[in-house]
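Usage example:
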Amino acid sequence: MMRLPRFRYYAASSVREAARIKAEEGPDSAFVAGGTDLYPNMKRRQQTPPVVISLSRIRALSRRRIGSDGAALGAALSLAAIESDRRMRRAFPGLVEAVAQISTPPLRNMGTIGGNVLLDTRCNYYDQNHEWRQAIDFCMKKDGSVCWVAPGSPRCLAVQSADSVPALIALRARVRLVSAEGERQLPLEELYRNDGIHYLTKRPDELLTEVLLPSADGWRSSYRKLRRRGAFDFPVLSVGAAARLEGDSVAEVRLVLGGVASAPLRLARSEETLRGRRLDDGAIAEAAAAAAGPSRPMDNTDFSFLWRKEMTSRFVADALRALRRG
Ligand SMILES: Cc1cc2nc3c(=O)[nH]c(=O)nc-3n(C[C@H](O)[C@H](O)[C@H](O)COP(=O)(O)OP(=O)(O)OC[C@H]3O[C@@H](n4cnc5c(N)ncnc54)[C@H](O)[C@@H]3O)c2cc1C
Ligand code: SF4
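Running the assembly step on the lines above writes:
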């Protein structure tokens, strides 16, 4: 049986208190929301924070506001609450499709949108128990010095694997970050860095308090996910798509890949191909073909990386056809 290491536990009752404790305890302490990622990681000794600050008693973080001007989702709102919200399904179907495919129903009751947005990057050589990793002398992401995926690589290539992220970026999400020093907002896509270890631009002392979505008026959205088991599995390729049509033509479109790099990847060329055009089979085929180039998965998740690259165009085409159907 894998046991948790020893740690000190605080249950903060307000955002201000959580930010204060974090500032006092320093960068090695960790926030925890649902704990469905942090606690298994601690059992495997991938993360060993001496202090854990729980957010689950902070009521303000579980609130949601959904209206014609968009949505504000508290970071500790459960995935199940988003999945079962009809207003969310109507306005942001791509996000709800993504959330409904995260892990399993019991884990979606515990897991939160904030924890998903901040999910650790994944790799076959890292998501193993301590003894397994010790047997290969660990790796650069934790306790070692070499990357077993690309031994010459100066950086870790662990993979962005959170389902909600490509869907949220396609929907133009922003995030609110709060620390003892103040607060700031930034577009969600600016929260990520293409580095498997330092994959967030967020400072360790910053608490994610809200995910903000602008009005979905006139927008359509979809999500597609490649995984081995339909019941539950992390994505090894995912596509978040959103578009606003004027008449028959695409006025705005955003396409985002997940599971192929350490950060989510905007498909700028595919988007460019579609602007001003009807979403017909020809335009979809061109945009899908343009997606294959930037998709460069590494050999560190399930399935062959060459096959995942090949599947990119098909998944992008499928996500675009879903947008066409509305
Ligand atoms: C068997 C299994 C299958 C899974 N399958 C999937 C899957 O298919 N797709 C997927 O995307 N995920 C999957 N997950 C991962 C996880 O369940 C989800 O990503 C979930 O949304 C994480 O949310 P949480 O609240 O439990 O995060 P936590 O474990 O509480 O936190 C995750 C990380 O975010 C930090 N954190 C959390 N909230 C905040 C905040 N508000 N501010 C600052 N830092 C914060 C924590 O310190 C930690 O580093 C799976 C997990 C398991 C165990
Ligand atoms: S990509 Fe390399 S350094 Fe990163 S977790 Fe995998 S083996 Fe370790």
